[in-house]
Amino acid sequence: MQSTRNHANVDPAEIAKFEELAHRWWDRNSEFKPLHDINPLRVNYIDERSPVAECRVVDVGCGGGILSEAMAMRGARVTGIDMGEAPLNVARLHQLESGAKVDYFQTTAEELAEDKAGYYDIVTCLEMLEHVPNPASVIRACAKLCKPGGDIYFSTINRNPKAFALSIVGAEYILGLLPKGTHEYSKFIRPSELADWIRESNLQLQHITGLTYNPLFKTYRLNERDVDVNYMVHVKKPVEC
Hints:
One of its GO terms (biological process) is methylation. This protein is an alpha/beta fold. Helices cover about 40% and strands about 25% of the residues. It is built from 8 helices and 8 strands. The chain has an 8-stranded mixed β-sheet with strand order 3-2-1-4-5-8-6-7. The mean pLDDT is about 95.
């Protein structure tokens, strides 16, 4: 399925960044190494708070399918959506090798929500909000996609001097963990901003945790006391919605 509707909330430059690197998505020593390294933390966090087995899950901004496949391997019925054609092609090819069963579509959250409102038990939207022109629109769409009583997960990057130093200067220019130009500081999102959009979408914030990196040991961990840079939130859609 490839959407032909208007893509108002898409930044072509952001799509092009990941299109160019798509062939390296599943290379664990490539530019996507950080995604592979943090994926067990992300999946465990989701699965512990909202067991995914037998649940209908949509992964918004799925890219090459790293998170989508991991949830499918735990028994979830996963749909992965993205606007990058090349990453989706890579995702489809990789599942032939891995055996993971994921349905991939080239569409936006807003478009899918028009057809699948209230359909999904769990909605994930990780490392994606900072790459779109209107994050609040994506959050509203995720709320619409989620069934009443369901769970939604967002992750993004805080906007402050520490985040600039670590996520851009450190990760992109000094340590080389990410390609230069991966992120734009102005698109980073403060937790207070994300919380406002969550409330405006009639969702309930359940939990927030940081994701920190130790450059000495080259390891990541979840840390509730440090949301200064990367952070992840668990949101609930009220039953009465």
